[in-house]
Amino acid sequence: MRRIVLLGATLGLAGCPSDDAGADCETDDCGASSSAGTGDTPTSMGATLDGNDADADADNDADADNDADTDNGTDGPDSSGDQTSAGGCGSDDDCGGDAPFCLDDGTCGGCSATPDPAAACSGADPTSPLCVEDACVSCTSAPDECGGVTPVCDDGSGACIACTEHDQCADSGCHAFVGSCLDPDSLYYVDGNADAGGDGSAKAPFRTIAEAVDLVAAGGEGTIFVESAGAYNEAVLVDEGKAVGIFGYPGDQALLRGGSFPGLTVDGATAYIDRFAIDGGNNTNTTEVTDGGLDIRRCDIDDGDGRGIDALNADVYLQDSEVTLHDAGGIYAVSSDVVLRNAEVALNGQNNDPTSGVYLEDTLFDIVYSTILINRGGGGMMGSVEPTIECRGESDGTVRNSILFGFQPGSIDNAGCADATFDNSALDTDDLSGQGSELLVYNANWFVSTFGPDLHLDPEFVDSPLEDLAVWQDGDPATDFEGDARPDTDETPDWVGWDVP
User: Are 461 and 418 in contact, with CB atoms under 8 Å apart?
Assistant: First the structure.
């Protein structure tokens, strides 16, 4: 599974005092003694005067000719003083914090006070070569200051960091499993209403998504922008080690229908899909990923005979999206990593098919602010298996700030993930590890319509137990699935589930 991470050198100042000191020493005679107390040149590290050192006084006529000794009233060779202990410095090693550089006047200061701020910063830390507001930073948000697997400039720290959102990559999309931006030189456009024979450019787009995917080189990267133009009735395959972003335009969803085949298949490759509706087909899964990665955002994966997402040895990331109304279950993952953020998995399964909303076998999972609700386990409302989450093999993970209910209590089976934690969530199953969760009985009145499904929390329901049950933490989603704000302060109470009413 793939997982979604500076050098220091100090500047030393030492040697002969400046001409202003008035010293007329030879090179071999230069040292701390001629600069002590002058305030013009920092004391060399490790050089001290001994009050009994008569040879130094005899050989160096600085005592007789140097006005510095007379003017500053230092009568003894101990006047080197200690500058460091008195608040001065001899090298950058004596400085730190907000004033990491030893300046020419023997005091510590920020980078902007040095003669060459950029050189000072790059010498101290090659990864932070810019001096901004007296601090050394990696970037300022100007173009091309960041790149590779850290292409984004963090406004708060001035550090180059990995991308996590597609809109952080102006010309393509985010290769989020790696942290880099997809290749901006490999862009293609699709419009189902375009004339046939297009070349995939913005002026002459392809008519099918598959045409654009085929042009991405094996092992290469590409980004495909898809116009919402009716349904794309095609089965899209991403394979050969490609990393491909397939994005609908903002404000709308493109519709993909695979018919008798999965709408999207990822085999030994990585696909990022955003702003799509993918309708399930006949007797087949709606999306499949094997030996690769599938990142789904702002998508509706709905209404199929098979499973919504079928994953084997894969990374699956689902954000601001729903998986609903699949007869054979919502998410089925084996030997995989599964992450849900602001996700809804609901009304999957049917009465005669033992299945689960989320099935996890030998799989690691991380579920935050998600709603997994009223899935069927076969043979009736509850069925023969626990329909909300079913763990098998050696699975493990965390659930936080989420809603997990079946039609009846006890809908979570943690037999294969006994060490998993369920924190600050609304649950219908007792004896689960974790803290801050509430054991509740499912109430359809908490939601606008559970059979729509419309799983917005009903704002008319007074004193809902789902309010203030979650605890927002730094790094959690800043909004709910449709953009309503969540708290932005660590450890703040919040609504559980994927919706803020």
Answer: no
